[in-house]
Amino acid sequence: MKVVALDKCPRIETDRLVLRKWEPRDLDGLYRLNTDPKVGEFFRTLNSPEETPLLLEVHLLKQQKDGFCFPVIEDRATGAFLGFCGFNVPLYQELMFFEPCIEMGWCLIPEAWGKGIAVEAANIWLKFGFETLQLEEIVSFTVVQNHRSRRVMDKLGMVHDPAEDFDFPGVETDDPLCRHALYRLSKERYFRRLNDRDIDREMSSG
Prior knowledge:
There is one protein chain. The protein is α+β, with helices and mostly antiparallel strands. Helices cover about 35% and strands about 20% of the residues. It has five helices and nine strands. It has helices spanning about 25-35, 50-65, 115-130, 145-155, 185-205; strands at about 10-15, 15-20, 70-75, 80-90, 105-110, 135-145, 160, 165, 180-185. A hairpin with a 3-residue loop joins strand 1 and strand 2. The protein is globular.
């Protein structure tokens, strides 16, 4: 019997989006994303033009190793690169207290902000993660003052415990980008919220 490996990052299309793996053709989009000062407001550093090809290579290598690495979002109608959203296995200077884990992250070009794109893409990957990959928990984190991303985490049903806020490794404690908020979503909570939404729909239709 031939065993077919599970694709941990399948191509998924919605009415307006395509979610897919990184490809070499994404270099220009990644360069634009990582050199935009608005996008980089809560990043510790912005990548230089010379560093962008190396970053893309890291994405491609991690994608090959882990099966995913913050999958690409593109506009279905135009094929335009909008950013990324999805799962990643963290690889930081120091082991985080919540590792090993599967991280959910997103980053969009400014023109894609405020349109519900991050929430739409993230919900698709949460469904895939819990229902297909059978993950037990998914985490997300960001700088505490990044309220835009934190609103997305709230909309996804992720839970924040202030007692788990942490200083990012290698960042000076007086740096405003040091303190991070951690959000968690367990499989149990995901399915409970899914069931509650189904009940609400049944009641509203009845």
